[in-house]
Design a protein that fits this description.
This protein is α/β, with parallel strands linked by helices. The protein folds into two domains: 4-33 and 77-293, Rossmann fold (3-Layer(aba) Sandwich), CATH 3.40.50.410; 39-74, no CATH class. Helix content is 45%, strand content 23%. It contains nine helices and ten strands. The chain has helices at residues 4-33, 58-64, 99-116, 140-151, 162-172, 191-200, 211-214, 240-263, 277-293, and strands at residues 39-46, 68-74, 79-85, 120-126, 130-137, 178-183, 202-209, 221-225, 232-236, 267-272. A six-stranded mixed sheet has the order 5-4-3-6-7-10, sandwiched between helices. Strands 1-2 form a two-stranded antiparallel sheet. Strands 8-9 form a two-stranded antiparallel sheet. The protein is elongated.
Length: 294
């Protein structure tokens, strides 16, 4: 666990970086991407020629003797829930940053984009169980708390219970929300829980991965450790069949995750830790906005 001064410094650094990105790139795209999230009742007014008769409020019409209709408007307040995998495999990195550090920056960017739009943001950290739940709220101080918790997390377990996290989110979220599920998706049997969550909420999977999880370098005998189960083993990286099967296993897992989200009617975005997550998210928001406008 880092000391308070170091933590404050890191939080501030991430805030400066991601706030600039959210203001410059995301305010418009973010709003447009989630515009069609629902309608809420606004008022009742007298029927006018051309109004949809299906909107007639029959109770008011009967009481006044004149036809009236219900007016609905787009819900302006959005609830964003960040479900973040903090299992052992998220603390892996072969380049400048661990996957968990990249996920923290992505969460900060999403949180500040939501804050710019006056939306609520909540946080759910999970490993083999629920590590932390923060109820959705608004405001800068709340967003900074989310970043602090992500930076300072010390999970009690190494494993990944993704179905449990999805079910927990379904139980605690009473209002329709946008749920970002951030993970490497090395998990089993979560598709049914994802389908159930997606029936009520708008779900987006963000798959974060390191290049060494897909491609082993040819560097002789290598001692490796299972980040979630804790065991170690020696492998011969000069074996081309081993390197090929290693890559195939990764590709199969990513393909399976993308397919599970697609079947659940949810979106899926795969990001390498060295990719520009800002550009990838901007393209994703713009694509959603185009779809929503048609």
């Amino acid at each position: 666990m880092m000391d308070t001064a170091e933590l404050i410094k890191k939080v501030r650094k991430i805030e400066i970086k991601t706030r600039r990105l959210s203001r410059n790139l995301f305010t418009g795209g973010y709003h447009s991407a989630f515009k069609g999230r629902g309608m809420s009742f606004s008022e009742v007014r007298q029927y006018q020629f051309g109004d949809d008769i299906r909107a007639i409020d029959w109770n008011v019409t009967a009481r006044t003797g004149e036809p009236h209709i219900k007016i609905f408007e787009e819900e302006r307040e959005l609830t964003v829930m960040l479900l973040v995998d903090v299992s052992g495999s998220s603390f892996f990195g072969s380049s400048a940053a661990f996957k968990q550090e990249v996920l923290t920056e992505i969460c900060a960017l999403l949180a500040f984009s939501a804050d710019n739009n006056n939306d609520k943001v909540g946080l759910l950290l999970f490993s083999d169980g629920i590590e932390l739940f923060i109820s959705p709220k608004k405001g800068r101080q709340h967003m900074l708390r989310i970043i602090r918790e992500l930076l300072n997390v010390q999970p009690s377990d190494r494993g990944t219970d993704l179905p449990g996290a999805l079910q927990y989110a379904r139980n605690v979220l009473k209002k329709r929300s946008v749920c970002f599920v951030l993970s490497d998706f090395w998990a089993d049997q979560y598709e049914q829980a994802l389908k159930v969550l997606s029936r009520r909420h708008d779900c987006i999977g963000i798959h974060c991965w390191d290049v060494r999880e897909r491609k082993l370098p040819d560097m002789g005998l290598l001692k490796v450790r299972d980040a979630e189960r804790g065991g170690t083993a020696w492998i011969d990286t000069t074996d081309p069949d081993l390197r090929r099967s290693y890559q195939e296993r990764f590709d199969e897992n990513r393909t399976a995750a993308a397919a599970a989200f697609r079947r659940a009617g949810a979106d899926f975005l795969s990001l390498r830790t060295t990719d520009s997550y800002a550009s990838a998210l901007l393209q994703f928001f713009e694509k959603r906005a185009r779809i929503a406008s048609h």
